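User: What would this chain look like folded?
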Amino acid sequence: MKEKVLKNKTLVIVVAAIVLAGIGFAAGMAVKTSLAENSGDYIGAERAKSIALENVGVSSSKATFTKVEVDPSEHPAVYDIEFYTASNEYDFEINAFTGEILEKSSEAFQTLPSAEESSQPETSAQTSPQPSDSAVQTKNNSGSSNSDYIGIDKAKSIALKHAGLSNVTFTKTKLDSDDGVKTYEIEFISDNWEYEYEINAYTGAIMDYGSERIDH
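Assistant: Here's the prediction, encoded as structure tokens.
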């Protein structure tokens, strides 16, 4: 009788071990499936870099990447891509599954005058007085601009051409000063994207720009 009880206990232990092994195997498979969903379906870092470069028309030979990493804490997960060229610095957030650009920005490097330019005497154009803030404000409110400025309409046109858009809703058009340089701040919305531009008021050069998807 005692021997039979021991055999029954042994059988129970064996069955329990088999059940636990099965549970462990299932859990392991679930973890592998989860990892596959979270990483195996990503487009990959190289593809994300290519998408960013193609968007701004920059070849890989002219770009230096400073950050290429995936952030799985975002929903959906995103690739954070940062790189620079000889004239601009770029920052992208790209959907890790679809390759869709969720956010991007660019900042132009401030170029300093060369030693030769610094040694030359100032010309009359360089020493011409700047218009007062009150004069600028009056001109800006009347819809025109100082003769030295490109004007609001030209700044808007430059921003739209760069963004490749025509039908937009402007939310901000303002003449401002950035580190002593007069700039136009241009902001507008198209579909579910918001765009921001900072344009040199004298030359029309794009100093900074960015776009961000609007979450409804």
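The longest strand covers residues 169-178. If you want, I can go into more detail on any region.
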